[in-house]
Amino acid sequence: MAVRTVAIISPGEMGCAVGSALKENGLRIIAPLTGRSELTRGRAEAAGFEDVPAIEDLLEEADLVLSIVPPACAVDIAREVAAAMKATGNRPPYTDCNAISPNSTRHAGKIISEARAVYIDGGIIIGPPPWKGKIPIIYVSGERTDPMTQLDGKGISVRDIGSEIGRASGLKMCSAALTKGTLALQAAVLIAAEALGLTEELQKELLGSREALYQQIESGTRRLPSVAARYMGEMEEIAATFSAAGVTPKFHQGALDVYRLLAKTPFASETPDTIDSSRTLEEAARTFAKHLPMGK
Question: CATH second-level architecture of 170-289?
Fold first, then answer.
């Protein structure tokens, strides 16, 4: 069946960006907006989303459902959608695009499959959202990925990597483990230097020997508190993924501690539109260090 209407649960920063890209390429995008914040509703409406408040109505109108929610919500959303599928008999294919472990996506997949709907494992791998000039890559796996591959070239890139549920999520976990794990390590080094009274010396060292790295840390650290709460669940899923693979989960359990600390700072309330672009690395370090000790 041709995919013409895509339901996105829910239109947060990434979900809205993906929906906007698809809308610009001729697809109808619907989402439940009732109860969402004014910021989210405004962003979604500006991107061309149509509000379909009830999940039951959403399933009746959608040719494909994309779940793009915080990791901790992924299985619960699958459960809610599956219940609505059973109640209505409307069973569009369901793609979990969340940053969750292979075990978590298999759990969600079992729930959706028991509702007799097609389940597709997905993972969005990209740095900035699509509106920053990047096209999101969505890796997918599963026995029937054709509803997703139809979207390839329509503002997003879709890449099928096999029939096994868990492959796409596993790749997402490895990618995020590197990118977001590295950001956490950089923040931890910055906080430690401040606690040791060495922020100025570290800055001079990095500017003298690795200026590009310093600029990367400065840019990443400015944004990091605003996304720290979202990254916490992802670190838990990465740690679980590594543990199941026989790899130490401790790197990303430590990264979770870093993000917990950043989420407690005043900068955590910022949005992408309100981040203070003039804030220096030294100012950030001083504020972060006030919330030590870490892991408490």
Answer: Orthogonal Bundle (1.10)
Total-model pTM: 0.94
Residue indicated by tokens 């890209």:
21
Give residue for tokens 């914040």. 37
Secondary structure class of 272 (helix, strand, coil): coil
Sign of the C-alpha dihedral, residues 89, 87, 102, 187?
A: positive
Task: Please state, in angstroms and rounded to a whole number, the distance separating the CA atoms of residues 63 and 55.
Answer: 14
What's the CATH code, domain 5-164?
3.40.50.720
- Domain spans in the chain, listed from the N-terminal domain onward: 5-164, 170-289
Identity of the amino acid at 14: M
Single-letter amino acid code for the residue at 118: V
Give the 3-state DSSP-derived string for 132-200, with helices as H, strands as E and coil as C. HCCCCEEEEECCCCHHHHCCECCCEEEEECCCCCCHHHHHHHHHHHHHHHHHHHHHHHHHHHHHCCCHH
Task: Please return the burial class of 96, using the count of CB atoms within 10 Å of its CB with bins 0-12, 13-18 and 19+.
Answer: buried
Asked if residues 59 and 2 have their Cβ atoms less than 8 Å apart, the reply is: no
The pLDDT tens digits of the residues spanning 178-206 come to 999 999 999 999 999 999 999 999 999 99
Q: How far apart are CA 190 and CA 7, in angstroms?
A: 41
